[in-house]
Design goal:
Low-confidence stretches: 1-21
Strand content: 5-15%
Mean pLDDT: 90
Helix content: 25-40%
CATH class of the largest domain: Alpha Beta
Distance between the termini: 47 Å
Radius of gyration: 20 Å
Strand order of the largest sheet: 2-1-3-9-4-10
Shape: globular
Number of helices: 13
CATH topology of the largest domain: D-Maltodextrin-Binding Protein, domain 2
CATH architecture of the largest domain: 3-Layer(aba) Sandwich
Order of helices and strands: EHEHEHEEHHEHHHEHHEEHHEH
Number of domains: 2
Length: 310
């Protein structure tokens, strides 16, 4: 069944295009976690703003934030109206935003996400480790086999609040079936990339600033082949749920639905939609339910109790 058109019935809704669901009548503002190259994010979000402004007949503007925490804070305090967040920051936003959040949409791939464990090519060769020819989701057993090579080596996570760059890999490493303690097993304790997102982790490993690291699989797949060769994939985590587009719970439900419709209407065969999909490295968006993030909620609570996210 065809989805209803974006603007169908807008005139009958209790909010107007000029009100935008905001009392001051200004544009809807959005942002996202800065998990990639800043110039690329700026260009991509400009395309998103233009598309949404036209699709929803509402001014939409991007508001950059410096880090993951700032994205959550901006949503929680009303500095932005909706945001593209990772799995962890989605749950944090849900917990910290008055009235919670609307789970708007996600990429199909976000429901089956994974992280890559990468190693400096020279280090990997010295240890007899071979780059993976298949990068299908791994298992705890495969991570346990890799753990011996990781012990005593310099290792980099991404941001502490990154789902694929820290929280889920740490949870898998810490599972008894793997038995890897980042604080005691990595030389000098783990390194974190506070700025630069997953690209910073890739560069750190490629340059041998660290020996190994973990990052979002899509960031590695989209990287320059020369960087990939300098930091090959040596391990893959099991699957988990990750990114989501969320809106403040105070946004009228009809407006949140119109926002979802705009994202679900994106079509890879439409040239005008291509820059928007590229901004999210997406092929398509799908509807989601909050319960899909229950696993992240449980892992996040466990790591918070252990003090691993301080």
């Amino acid at each position: 069944m065809k989805r209803r058109r974006m603007l169908q019935g807008l005139a009958a809704l209790p909010w107007s295009a000029t009100a935008c669901g905001r009392k001051d009548g200004t544009a809807l503002r959005f942002s996202g976690i800065p998990d990639g190259d800043k110039s690329a994010l700026k260009e991509g979000y400009a395309a998103v703003s233009a598309y949404l402004s036209k699709a929803m007949d509402i001014p939409v503007q991007a508001t950059p934030v410096p880090d993951y925490t700032a994205a959550v804070t901006a949503l929680a305090n009303g500095g932005i109206d909706f945001a593209w967040l990772g799995g962890v920051t989605t749950v944090q936003a849900e917990q910290r935003t008055p009235d919670g959040v609307h789970f708007v949409a996600a990429r199909a791939s976000d429901l089956h996400f994974k992280s890559y464990i990468i190693g400096n090519a020279a280090v990997a060769e010295s240890l007899g480790l071979q780059p993976l020819t298949s990068r299908a989701p791994g298992s705890l057993a495969s991570l346990a086999a890799l753990a011996t090579s990781l012990r005593g080596r310099r290792f980099s996570f991404g941001s502490k609040s990154s789902t694929s760059g820290h929280v889920m890999p740490r949870a898998f490493f810490s599972d008894p079936a793997v038995g890897l303690d980042p604080e005691s097993d990595f030389a000098g304790g783990p390194v974190y990339q506070a700025q630069g997102g997953h690209a910073a982790t890739l560069r750190a490993v490629a340059s041998r600033a660290v020996d190994f690291g973990v990052l979002n699989f899509a960031s590695w797949e989209q990287a320059d082949p020369a960087l990939q060769a300098q930091a090959p994939v040596l391990g893959v985590t099991p699957e988990f749920v990750d990114y989501c587009l969320v809106a403040r719970g105070s946004m009228p439900k009809a407006q949140a639905e119109a926002l979802a419709d705009a994202f679900l209407a994106l079509d890879a065969s439409n040239e005008g939609h291509a820059p928007v999909l590229a901004a999210f490295a997406a092929e398509r968006f799908v509807r989601v339910t909050p319960s899909s993030w229950d696993g992240i909620r449980d892992v996040l609570a466990s790591l918070q109790d252990a003090g691993a996210l301080k």
